[in-house]
């Protein structure tokens, strides 16, 4: 009999107990798949023996005034796209199966969900962390792939996995953009032609913030103003937030003297868009 | 490529993907092991290839005024007892490893934790469900064993496992009792000689409730009064609750016409004791 005190060593032991199971890569999605999702699937395809994609529009992560009802559902196209990306299995559950009437459990990540998206969408992250925990338990993947576009979501899920010791590695993949810089998103299809053109301002604003940092601006406030300036030219836009923050804690930086992540969120009419970019210092 | 919609079938698929791993049985404990714990280990020993016991006094499940500091810690004796019960591995983590300073995630089961223990110990079940989720993720058992003595805890954990689709079967094992009926508990060792004698009233009260049901009493209120009557003879006791309730929802029954569970909790001085018994109808 052995006694183990360290979590790490327990995990190593548990791992050794398993046989050579196939390596499973998992891409959780809400469907309405675009190039961003497909890049996750291709990455998983390269790194794993089996690729599982879930398609589930998760009601728990939508607020009561949000777009759950009109969220795009395009299963036949999604299925074809998965097939072409070499996916082995699509998990496509029904709401009543994932959340039966007796369902009453939530998974809550506290501090990291207070700011930014969490402030504007108060129940959003609890819905995300609950469904992601459940999907990870069901699929049992070795690796799960998330896009950087939802950067706060990625950070929250990393924390969740660490805190609950979920036996999975979370992989962050680069944001995929349209030719004009707009981050790909299932919600982009809500945009009318004029709105679509206007939408590029989000990435341009973030890029302006990054340029300010490269140009030597160090004040968080000034960098933030730099990003907002571009947006304020367009009264049709409403800004939710722009911020320069620490890439792990997501706390706003008063002074930028190492890596930072620039987060932005705005609304064009009824459509809400988010995006982010990293800014590095010193290595340039 | 396959498409699966049903959770059950996904689980079956996931299962088939694994090779013949050893069956792991898991007994989570807070140490201070007694015959109750040992009966769980023996059951696991019979049913599984490997038996894992965790020993961890979980601070999250103690209230600020509770007995975390003086909770008995008897690792050397526990280790010997595990050895004799044929345990393969003890997981004995440190608080700082299970809950590092960045830890910020909770698992919450809502309705089932409102009443009874949850009402008297408001943060207790959140602490239990959080640590149990984490331990199950770390150990990855096929089966986890819980004593009936903490009946509400068992029901809450069943719900947790169902709601989060944790890949484990929860097994309820009978309460182990002293010769005079007192349910075994690590907290019994707090009892002085006079208190120890008095403590038997809890099981006697529950048994009186069960007898009332067997004798044909159907009113939940009357059965409850039957249980309380015995305790009220002893002013040294303070009753937390006695109730007749539904064995799955834990809602109090106004009329007993099927199975019921009788729950009781009381305090003798600083020591808090809980216990429960089933009452069946019709099959007698």
What do you see in this structure?
The structure is a homodimer of 284-residue chains. Chain A has 284 residues and is of the alpha/beta class. Chain A folds into two domains: 20-173, Rossmann fold (3-Layer(aba) Sandwich); 186-279, Pantoate--beta-alanine Ligase, Chain: A,domain 2 (2-Layer Sandwich). The first copy, chain A, has ten helices and ten strands. Chain A has helices at 7-17, 35-47, 75-84, 95-98, 117-120, 124-139, 151-163, 193-198, 201-214, 220-232; strands at 2-4, 24-29, 50-55, 89-91, 105-109, 143-147, 169-173, 237-245, 260-268, 271-279. A five-stranded parallel sheet of chain A has the order 4-3-2-6-7, with helices on both faces. Chain A has a three-stranded antiparallel sheet with strand order 8-9-10, with helices on one face. In chain A, helix 6 (124-139) packs across helix 7 and helix 9 packs antiparallel against helix 10 (220-232). Chain A is globular. The model of chain A has no long low-confidence stretch (mean pLDDT 92). Chains A and B meet through strand 1, helix 1, helix 3, strand 4 and strand 5 of A and strand 1, helix 1, helix 3, strand 4 and strand 5 of B. Strand 4 of chain A pairs parallel with strand 1 (2-4) of chain B.
């Amino acid at each position: 009999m052995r006694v183990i005190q360290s979590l790490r060593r327990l995990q190593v032991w548990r791992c050794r107990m398993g046989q050579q199971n196939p390596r499973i890569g998992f891409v959780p999605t809400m469907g309405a798949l675009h190039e961003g999702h497909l890049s996750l699937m291709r990455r998983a395809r390269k790194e794993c023996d089996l690729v599982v994609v879930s398609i589930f529009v998760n009601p728990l992560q939508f607020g009561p005034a949000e777009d759950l009802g009109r969220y795009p559902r395009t299963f036949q196209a999604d299925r074809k796209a998965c097939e072409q990306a070499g996916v082995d299995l699509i998990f496509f559950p029904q709401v009543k199966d994932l959340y039966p009437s007796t369902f009453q459990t939530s998974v809550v990540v506290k501090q990291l969900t207070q700011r930014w998206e969490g402030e504007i969408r108060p129940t959003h992250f609890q819905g995300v962390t609950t469904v992601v925990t459940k999907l990870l338990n069901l699929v049992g993947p070795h690796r799960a792939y998330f896009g950087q576009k939802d950067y706060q979501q990625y950070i929250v899920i990393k924390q969740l996995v660490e805190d609950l010791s979920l036996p999975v590695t979370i992989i962050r993949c680069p944001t995929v953009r349209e030719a004009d810089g707009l981050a790909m998103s299932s919600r982009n299809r809500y945009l009318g032609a004029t709105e679509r053109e206007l939408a590029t301002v989000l990435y341009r604003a973030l890029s302006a913030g990054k340029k300010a940092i490269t140009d030597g601006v160090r004040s968080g406030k000034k960098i933030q103003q730099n990003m907002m300036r571009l947006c304020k030219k367009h009264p049709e836009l409403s800004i939710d937030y722009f911020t320069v923050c620490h890439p792990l804690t997501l706390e706003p930086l008063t002074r930028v003297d190492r890596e930072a992540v620039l987060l932005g969120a705005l609304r064009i009419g009824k459509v809400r868009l988010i995006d982010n970019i990293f800014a590095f210092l010193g290595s340039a």
